């Protein structure tokens, strides 16, 4: 059949040879003054390149790692239309206008360019003749699209939006979107880009580009599009189990004794903790910025500090930046080789008093992460100064990088790959990728884990979890984090989180709460609701400035706020088998943690624009409480610059007599299709309706989809404290269902060599039988025998001893 398909290709081309040329991957032609090439990377992924006719174009993509595979296709022409057909996609090209269109093989229209929607405007890029490039597409009027990275607009559906796509503290620019119709577009350009969607068209316009260069991918649904995007730009490595536990941080622990004491207090309180983070200035003053060494006298022995944390069965990561102070070794090494930029960046002053004295400039400069030799130097110092102490991972801050008051001189800065303007948005991809690649080359005994503030297309391949930046501590900011995280995930990058409680919390430290903002009821309510949301993100991490966030800052056991925080930290740990199994699905099968309702319920139009609910994995519907219920909702307006300038405007004093024990209610939409079970009560409810449900300060609406199989672990103090040898398996009837329990050695790359196990659970709703399949695979230290306690919402329970052999239970 394949030979017949290829022979058809030859015949169709030979009859229309004057109009286009067949290539190994597609076709070439000229139209409307441009050279146009259509390339199949596989049957579902198509690259479109348009270049002004007199120019040549050669590009090595920074994001794309896939090479074009041999793909069977048929090319034919009639009148002025060329049609190129693979097994998955039909592409048409108008030889008069140069307009390209895409459809499924069943001829369902998916997307088309706007007629005369390609534009090249000559542009002088610091002496290099190039273009400002633009391409417009025509979408259906009611067609929702998602992605474009992370933005703080509060919208989920990106129709009728305008974005300046340039990396920033709280904005992650990813030039990719996908449609509910099951296709995606990756605009492969790294310059600052304007995205505009209006009733007329949807347009990418980049400041600099030698060509219009984009990829169309058809996946049939959101998971299929994401699978194609990761195939194109890189798959997701598996994170260590401990990264999915609870993380405590603040800006900043001021001594190693203080940091270790925090871990000790968690252990004494019996509250689970897996990670602690050291923020900046462990290196000393700003002239030693990012020295990657413990030069601050309050950190006399970094290696001992890390070991003390390890002895408490916790992990530690540490802050490193994309810039260096003038008195650091790195600065000297890189400056001598022209590897430092002269753009304005943080911190601008060498003064550590507040407000900073700007007449004492810090001299801090960003390094050229586009230069492979500079990335080598960066790793050499990080390895010798920090990794050698036993540090478990990296907090790569300011990977945008911070770029204050940008101007033409900044954008004209020469990088290893051209002007900064030309490659600006790919900076986080390059600097994060440099750390990942070097650590992988250094050791396979510890999985790379990077927490970072910025991302670009392809960064999922680098073991990085991106957080949403220095957000303000407000209800408005909390509401915006949900669609921000969902659109980021829909851009193909699954690991995302936010500072629990928001970063800038100074508004809550006034009046009688000046010394202890964590006792301010206004902040307590916001913090608890943010933490409950954070329980259902890929990293549960408390962090911020102004108000310390450790659980004991909020009160003590037996008090509503402390107990609510502890309850959800414990809930996170009981869900670790589910979360780790989801992580395996992400890595091995291109799944996603945070799932907009349109991903799993695309036919339910009511869910297309819902921006305050989502699925966490395939089973759990999460509806965070994002409005104040117990206290006045204070309006706090802050951004990363005004926050650092400590500008405050209002007095936030809570009303007396706040009763955090009172019951409240919330509205929740249950998507149409399946039935749903209330996680807390077990009540079964039909989907396709909005319901009003009871909530408390220690409860948010959580629903489990019928057909789900949910493993629940025992309470523990850290992720690997207890083996999963006695798991509760919660079974939710009403539909057939499957679940794969995944286990491995938890913190090395032996899984890449097959050292892992899978146990498949399968529920047949008609026969009421649960089958636990044969264990597949093996690894050192795996459980040979274990107990599963299977529990139904009705209370019916059966216990089975499992030794790796298939078992069937009837209910």
Name some characteristics of this structure.
globular; 15 helices; disordered N terminus; single chain; 9-stranded antiparallel β-sheet; 811 residues; 20% helix; 8-stranded antiparallel β-sheet; 46 strands; alpha+beta
Describe the structure.
The protein has 811 residues and is α+β, with helices and mostly antiparallel strands. The chain contains 15 helices and 46 strands. A hairpin with a 3-residue loop joins strand 31 and strand 32 (620-622). Mean pLDDT is 95; it is low at 1-18. It has a 9-stranded antiparallel β-sheet.
Summarize the structure.
This protein is an alpha+beta fold and 811 residues long. The protein is built from 15 helices and 46 strands.
Large-scale geometry:
globular
DSSP, total strands: 46
Helix-residue proportion: 10-25%
Proportion of beta-strand residues: 25-35%
Q: What is the residue-averaged pLDDT?
A: 95
Tally of helical segments: 15
Radius of gyration: 27 Å
Widest sheet, order of strands:
5-6-7-8-9-10-16-15-12
Counting helices, strands and paired strands, the structural category is: alpha+beta
SSE blueprint and pairings:
Blueprint: H1 2-14, E1 21-22, E2 26-31, E3 34-42, E4 45-52, E5 74-78, E6 81-85, E7 89-94, E8 100-104, E9 109-125, E10 128-138, E11 145-150, E12 162-165, E13 172-179, E14 183-187, E15 193-197, E16 202-209, E17 212-218, H2 222-233, E18 246-248, H3 256-269, E19 275-278, H4 302-311, E20 315-320, E21 323-324, H5 329-335, E22 365-366, H6 372-385, E23 393-396, H7 408-411, E24 414-415, E25 418-419, H8 420-423, H9 427-442, E26 450-452, E27 464-467, H10 475-490, E28 496-497, H11 521-534, E29 540-542, H12 560-574, H13 576-589, E30 594-595, H14 597-600, E31 614-616, E32 620-622, H15 640-644, E33 664-670, E34 675-678, E35 684-686, E36 689-695, E37 702-705, E38 709-712, E39 726-731, E40 737-744, E41 756-764, E42 769-772, E43 776-778, E44 786-791, E45 797-802, E46 807-810
Parallel strand pairs: 18-19, 18-29, 19-20, 20-23, 23-26, 26-27, 27-28, 39-44
Antiparallel strand pairs: 1-2, 2-3, 3-4, 4-17, 5-6, 6-7, 7-8, 8-9, 9-10, 10-16, 11-13, 12-15, 13-14, 14-17, 15-16, 21-22, 24-25, 30-31, 31-32, 32-37, 33-36, 34-35, 34-37, 38-39, 40-41, 41-42, 41-43, 42-46, 44-45
Helix pairs in contact: 3-4, 5-6, 6-9, 11-12
